[in-house]
Amino acid sequence: MTTLEHTDGRGLPSVLPVGSRLSAAVRRGLWWGVLSLTGGVERRGRLPRGGCVVVANHSSHADTAALLAVLDARHTPAIGAAADYWFGSPWRRRICRRLAAGFPVRRSGGGMDDLLSMADELRAGRAVVLFPEGTRGRNGELGSFHRGALVLAERAGVPVVPVGIGGTDRLLPKHGRLRSALVRVAIGDPLPPTVTPAEARDAVVALHARTTSEPLRDSPARRRVAAVVTSRWGLPLAFCWAAAEALSWPLMPELLLAAACAAVPRAALKMSLGALAGSLAGGLLAVQLATAGVQLPAPLTTERMRDEVRHELALEGVSAVRHQPWNGIPFKVYGAEAGRAGTGAAEWLAASATARGSRTLTVGLGFAGLGLLMRRHRRQYGRYLALLGGGFATGLSLIVHGWN
User: Fold this and answer.
1) Containing H/E element for 36?
2) Residues forming beta bridges with residue 79, ordered by sequence position
3) Taking the C-alpha atoms of 95, 99, 101 and 102 in order, what is their torsion angle to the nearest 10 degrees?
4) pTM for this one?
5) pLDDT tens-digit profile of 65-119?
6) Contact between 158 and 123 (Cβ < 8 Å)
7) What is the pLDDT of residues 332-348, one digit of tens each?
8) Which of 260, 303, 64, 32 is nearest to 172 (CA)?
9) Cα within 13 Å of Cα(37), Cβ side
10) Contact, 66 vs 165, CB < 8 A?
11) What are residue 184's phi and psi, to 5 degrees?
12) Are 272 and 260 in contact (CB under 8 A)?
């Protein structure tokens, strides 16, 4: 098997299989991606070169994912897992080994032997991750540390690295459901293998406190947008904006959703459904007004757009509105031309609900995902708005020019 040379904690040469490092890199990418989608993950500090025993606080099953997402793949981290739970059935064993690089540690008899069996792995440069509390804690309080991790570090002659994890108790509470939360991991300075359990615990407590006390840097613009979106005016704003655009207003509701859903991802579904309802209501009114011979102003539209819509309606009937989300022609043009063609209200509502629903919900949820990915970069929200406005103006100009 191909190997790469490293040095262990004492500066002596050691080797780790390339395949193990590749597997660790894949696991790191997987869990970083998952945590990015559920609120983001931040890391402070790095592991020292060579093997080490990582000791961390434990309040959630998500702690393992957080550590695998931030620890360097060159250390091929292995996670100590309760043998009676994670290795009690074949499917759990496979999940633990493949997705978490877990190894079994018995909690009643033989646990020390299980730990000491990893001494050679440590000397080869690997990081062994252990939760010295032995079980998940509650309410952010750390329990007492068992000696096993420190005995292993002393036996292998490698340092002990304290790590504080914050946010996982909100992301996946004990006996709770998964929800969005930013996870922070603080990696401390190495401690000698002769450190006492109390000293190791104190170091982890201090790091854990740092992860929970540091405020998340934010943008004043995002806070103001979030205040509006989460207020009683958020849903009416989405409805009225979309309804106005379906009648005459030149700015698409997707622009509002791009700003609102990125600022407050949890409000994405509410805002998207509000915008969809507004589009359908405004479109229905546009059809009725056009049927009655009322012609509303339609800024930033062209005669060629109207010709194209009339041609589509003549060939396909009201189902032609399905082209609207993708061809750049505003929804109000379809509504007005459908009304002039004598399209019935029920027929129009059924066809437009599918067309507008696919676009509005996709855009809203897509920007909510972007907002989750941007969570740790909230302070850049003002720049995001500037880029969004510039990109929208450029795109709109190109569309109008293309239909001239």
Assistant:
1) helix 18-37
2) 102, 129
3) -40
4) 0.62
5) 999 999 998 999 999 888 887 887 888 888 888 888 889 888 777 788 989 999 9
6) yes
7) 999 999 999 999 999 99
8) 64
9) 9
10) yes
11) -120, 135
12) no
